[in-house]
Design a protein that fits this description.
single chain; alpha+beta; OB fold (Dihydrolipoamide Acetyltransferase, E2P); Dihydrolipoamide Transferase; Chloramphenicol Acetyltransferase; 3 domains; six-stranded mixed beta sheet; four-stranded antiparallel beta sheet; 11 helices
């Protein structure tokens, strides 16, 4: 019996996804657990793996958009016919779901439906080895130019290598592949001739390359920007959000950070130390990491802390899992890797879901304090401001001290002001006495 390949749900707000490319050709063999197709939500791309051993059969094609749970392909046994797929009406506001029809159409009708997207393409013979390699590399074999009477394995490899060497951003490559563009034909206008997203958009819009945009060019309200807007509006409309602010004396934390940088001979950021301190504080105040499900407040099983990362077209929140069990160097390395991959649009769904609390640091932008908006289904978020030098009266003497503004937004439906203030108080104590951070679990390598 054929096994369905469906469009996965990659986030709370996702209702549909787009097929970027098939990694296995139609009719190719695949083993259970192998990546078979790349799909994309408004924020991330994701490789869907085969649910069973068998033959990959395509139902949807590159550039197609499908609702969550819709069938995009099948895994069949050798010789097994592909079930007909029909669209099942969904309730208002819900995505359509695809299902297998009760009756399988005649093979001729089925074949006609499957080859429809490529009917206008010229058929070129290809060797079995070439087709197998094209499936492994995710190459559309119909776009390969043969060196002789038929497409060979060497032709496919040359086609792949030529495009792999091209200087192009990951997002631009995904856009080009999704729209069926050959990146060899695209003129790059980025640094050192790099092909960027705007270059791909110009091709799609039929424009000539230009070096600069018009100063008053409008920005489409789509994709990540639209997803962020929907998430933030939903957050404010469904939660009773209040923000508590306080200051922490981080004079000793600054000294500790410099000492750790010298000891480890590596960069240690304030965010690394903050994530560790937040994880320790959440261990004492788990309600700040809870979530509301129906009529039940669900307490966290793990302390997974999200870190807001700014992107050119929005922001994303990668997750540091089990941050309370990690050392500061491990947290720093994890943040660096996730942030880099976030900017390359290379995060998977596990790396952007599952956070119980989020930290957003705008201190590097010169911001003192602000009102962060909670990222559902979490019930709290910490905003971190810049460090300023202030005079403090200590033992009758005016002394310069370093202070940091902390802004904690909580969902008052779940967390009252007193528990929120108690969490902030614990966090301030940890930041003002860094030795307590290291005493709250593994913090040193």
């Amino acid at each position: 019996m054929a096994t369905k390949i469906i469009m996965p749900k990659l986030g709370m707000a996702m209702s549909e996804g787009k097929i970027v490319k098939w990694l296995k050709g139609d009719g190719a063999e695949a083993k259970k657990g192998e990546p078979v197709v790349v799909v994309m939500s408004k924020k991330i791309t994701y490789e869907v793996v085969t649910p069973a051993d068998g033959i990959v059969r395509h139902i949807a094609h590159a550039k197609d958009t499908r609702g969550i749970g819709q069938i995009i392909g099948f895994i069949t046994a050798p010789g097994e016919e592909v079930p007909e797929v029909v669209e099942v009406a969904a309730p208002a506001g819900a995505p359509a779901v695809a299902g297998a029809a009760a009756d399988t159409p005649p093979p001729a009708a089925l074949a006609e439906r499957r080859v429809e997207p490529s009917q206008e393409e010229k058929f070129v013979p290809s060797s079995p080895a070439a087709r197998r390699l094209a499936g492994e590399l995710g190459v559309d074999i119909s776009r390969v130019t043969p060196s002789g009477r038929r497409i060979t394995e060497q032709d496919v490899q040359r086609f792949y290598d030529e495009r792999a060497r091209i200087n192009i951003s990951p997002l631009a490559r995904q856009m080009a592949e999704a729209e069926g563009l050959d990146i060899v034909t695209i003129q790059g206008t980025g640094p050192n001739g790099k092909i960027i997203e705007d270059d791909v958009l110009r091709i799609l819009e039929g424009e000539k390359p230009r070096k600069a945009k018009a100063p008053a060019e409008n920005i489409p309200f789509i994709g990540m920007r639209q997803a962020i807007a929907e998430q933030m509006v939903h957050s404010l409309q469904t939660m009773a959000q209040i923000t508590l602010t306080t200051k922490a004396d981080v004079t000793e934390l600054k000294s500790t950070r410099e000492a750790l940088r010298a000891r480890w001979d590596r960069k240690v950021s304030y965010t690394d130390l903050l994530i560790k301190a937040v994880a320790v504080a959440l261990g004492d105040h788990p309600l700040l990491g809870a979530r509301l499900e129906g009529e039940e407040i669900v307490m966290p099983d793990e302390i997974n802390v999200g870190v807001a990362v700014a992107l050119d077209d929005g922001l994303i929140v990668p997750v540091i899992r089990n941050a309370d069990r990690m050392t500061v160097p491990e947290i720093g390395a994890k943040i660096k890797g996730l942030a880099q991959r976030a900017r390359e649009n290379d995060l998977n769904v596990d790396e952007v879901t599952g956070a119980v609390f989020t930290v957003t640091n705008l201190g590097t932008y010169g911001v003192d304090g602000f009102t962060p908006i909670i990222n559902p289904p979490e019930v709290a978020i910490l905003g971190v401001g810049r460090i300023t030098e202030e005079l403090a009266l200590i033992n009758g003497q005016a002394v310069a001290r370093s202070r940091m503004v902390l802004s904690l937004t909580i969902d008052h439906r779940i967390v009252d002001g007193a528990p929120g203030a108690a969490f902030l108080q614990t966090l301030v104590q940890l930041l003002e006495h860094p030795a307590l951070i290291f005493a709250g679990g593994p913090a040193l390598s």
